[in-house]
Amino acid sequence: MNDRDKAVETALRRAGELGLRRALVGMEGALSRTFRRAGDPAGAAPPGETLPDAPRSSEGVASVAGEWSPTEPAGATVEAAESLAAAGLGVRVCGAFGEGEPAEGMAPFVEKYEGIALGPPSFRARVEVSSGEWLDLVPAALSPDLRPESLLSRLGEGPFLDLFSRTDLVAWLRFGRLPGLAGLLRLLLERVYPSLGPNEHRTFLFGWDGFPGGAGGAASRSLLRTLASFHTYGSVFLETGEDGLAPLARELQVRDPSGDAPGELAAGLRRELGIDLLLVHGPASHLAAGREETIELTHEGEASLSPSPLSAAATRTGFVVGRLLGLGAAESLWLAYAFAGAAAAGKAPPGFDEAVGWLQESGGGARLHTS
Questions:
Q1: For the chain, is the Cβ count within 10 Å smaller at the N or the C terminus?
Q2: Directed axis angle between helix 309-324 and helix 352-362, to 10°?
Q3: Residue 222 half-sphere exposure toward CB, CA atoms < 13 A
Q4: What confidence tens digit (pLDDT) does each residue in 277-336 have?
């Protein structure tokens, strides 16, 4: 039985466990509005085709007949929560959703995922320039008033400890750009996890896309090196895009990475960080650098899997689902590929059965490479 068939067989056999797994996702939060030209419904053009005369600036929007969508939740935390929930996990969120109470437009999302509001959301405005592709007129920036360390005071000590004791997956996305996260991580390492102890099913996932303004300095390097401390209490994964590897190497002040292949660079960075696994998404591959081996799954030529926020969230979900079900890195990469493919085919976060079905029927074009 090859890795792909093994991934399908094992995942299907253990699928009933997913409903028992709980995730906590944070902390970015944004509200978004999208401008669409009059007469152009969403997705009117084939993928990648530019919509004629689509406005490409705030000035252009002002001169084109159209309308703004209602305000809706957006950002990495929203995408991850929706994706994990569609896969079958129980999900709770915390982050920049409002000050005490949910901000207007954020309330349905907060209610759905039992959200904990720790600061005001940012705002994003964008215009659709091709089917499924947008130009940011006002890019979302993480709220400077987000206070991760206030999670304890918002909940109280008992509920705070209970939250983390019941959580199998803790996912901090864009963590390098979250103000105040270092304080929360210290709180978890000093007061929470020592009392909870190790748990082989617990996973810590940190999404990295750099620090504000580029290099973060000594404090940021210290934050990155804190991640290894969570290994005592569960598995520690860092996730980034292929274009994030070289900046990560510079941040850690390791040797010049310019001549390294992505797999070699990822393996070296994982060792430098002391974490369990570095997960890397590329335009035609998914790569997992673990303690014992580096595995790459390539799917060159499959334009339908081109990177997008939806496919990135689905890829992460597939890999995490595999690990939470006890699959190895190779089988989990196949699930990452399955979820990304099903997301691209369906244009929505796929469910577990939908993703596995896509892999069985359409996912034969990828190959695994191990080093």
A1: N
A2: 100
A3: 8
A4: 999 988 788 899 999 999 999 876 554 455 556 678 899 999 999 999 999 999 999 999
Give the CA-trace dihedral at 314, 317, 318, 324, to 10 degrees.
Answer: 180
Q: Indicate the burial class of 14 (C-beta count within 10 angstroms; 0-12, 13-18, 19 or more).
A: middle
Instruction: Please give the Cα distance from 88 to 79 (Å, whole number).
Output: 15
Spell out the SS3 assignment of 58-107.
HHHHHCCCEEECCCEEECHHHHHHHHHHHHCCEEEEEECCECCCCCCCCH
Beta-carbon contacts of 303 under 8 Å, excluding residues fewer than 6 positions away, are none
Q: How far apart are CA 41 and CA 125, in angstroms?
A: 18
Pair 60, 153: CB distance under 8 Å: no
Q: In this structure, are strands 294-298 and 285-290 parallel, antiparallel, or unpaired?
A: antiparallel
How many other CB atoms are found less than 10 A from the CB of residue 9? 13
Q: Which residues of 68-81 are buried (b: 16+ CB within 10 A; e: fewer)?
A: eeebebbbbbbbbb
Write phi, then psi, for 159 (nearest 5 degrees): -60, -30
For residue 90, list its beta bridge partners: 22
Residue with tokens 């964008």, as numbered in its chain: 126
